[in-house]
User: Fold this.
Amino acid sequence: MRCAPPPAAAAWWPAHVREGPSATRPGYCGSESEFAPRARAIAAGRSGSPNMWLFWRTRNRFSLEELRYLTDQLQKVHVVNEANKEFVIEALRSIAELMIYGDQHDALFFEYFMEKQIMGEFARVLRISKLSRVSLQLLQTMSIMIQNLRNEHSIYYIFSNEHINFLVTYPFDFRIDEMLSYYISFLRAISGKLNKNTISLLVKTKNDEVTSFPLYVEALKFAFHEDSMIRVAIRTLTLNVYHVGDESVNRFVSRTPLSDYFSDMVQHFQKQCIDLDKLVARSSRKGNSSVPISSIEDAIVQIEDTLYYFSDVMSSGIPDLERFITENILRVLVFRFLLPSLQRQSTDLDLSVTTSMYLLCCILHIFKNKDMASTVAAALFHQPDGPDDRKQRTPNGYTSEHDSCKSENHCTTASGIEQSSEEPNSLSSVSWKHLPNNSSRSDCCQGNTPREHLLSYITEGDDSQALGSLCLFATLLQTKELDESMLDALGILPQRKQHKKLLLQALVGEDLAETQLFSSSSSLTDDSICSDFDIYVRKLQDKYGLQCHHPRQMTSKAHRYQVIC
Assistant:
């Protein structure tokens, strides 16, 4: 007589066999009432008794039991090879999922994580493995955990005991592109969790001074990587470090050799400017369609991104970095290349006039920094040195390498006045006097300052030069960081603001203001008044060695006449 299979197998019988009447089941040696309850119990995953059929049950994927099992199995691995690499990879991935689940649902998960020192197990697995796939999974596991863990105590534990610094300084094989991407994501994830408490776990100190900060140091090694996404990630990381506001860390990143990073950044920005100028020059040639507009647009985006990064660093609250960036931008770029380009002087860069105008507009528009804006505005009155002076002058380490201007371009002014190239263009060589009310345009448009050249481009330059010059004056006018004395010196202070200021001064009893209000010359400046313009002109001379034509010798009315005529 044939009998039915054991109850365990009955759960997998076809439905018509499992649920039909007993008369239709050939070989069944028992009543339906005896078997049906058992079959239904097994089909539902339960056992008729507590100890039977346990080998059919699986562990809950998101359970502490599963975490124990994975940890125990991982601890039994003494070498990672081709035979067990799949298990190791899956274990690392699953542990990350379990820790995130436990962080949101059950604190016992992280207690077990700390008890078994699983961070140490991760470091051990990395040491005993030479397989890139295992390293990739470990970096991904750490990134996922750091990004998604919400409990501060969990982050404190992960950042402690030097495990993070070990992973940060581990010599991964970055010849594998995917490895570098995962590593950079790992670094950025760490920086996203930085605050005054966690950052102290990642630095080494001596006498309250930071002596080592592996996260920052290792990140800077990739600051100029060819991949733009990696460069952006490193900039994000550095900003996260600066915004923590830890004084000892701020001093550490402001000291050499780490401060050289910003010198290199300015050099990198200078190269971006050169590349843009070359693209524009190539595209402007007649019949040359080899440069797509998208290439120029991409170059512009990169330049503006770099300037916004500089601006973010300057506003991060670290005075040393703010001064360092300002000094480098002014010395390396503005004084050495941009202003000489406006004056058509030869430099080793030879940027075009329109590119220089665009870059100055960007600097004034993006940098919300009074010192930077005021210095650039005052430098528009810089009077170039004569050839002999340029060879001898080396103020504060700044060496001007400008060549002599060509005679036909040496002193282009709004009036078209030509000056002999043999006559030195020093401050003493130009005599400036107050202009009478009926002064003509030719009376006030003398000199070789960048401001005079900007005015000449409006009347005598081509369309791009005229538009660029107007845009630069408009940007100066809209720069909120500039004092009204700067705008008045440039001749672009709106007349209603000038009249309002003089009226206010007259109402409070300032005799000088009352005299100026009803005076035909309407000059805002006087030797007894020390305005922002005076301060920055003196700063240009004392700090940077740049001689400036002081517009006090001209009236503000004459300056406005230059602009509107």
Summary: Residues 4-56, 386-446, 521-529 have pLDDT under 50 and may be disordered. Residues 64-258 form a domain with the Leucine-rich Repeat Variant fold (CATH 1.25.10.10). The two ends are 119 Å apart (CA to CA).
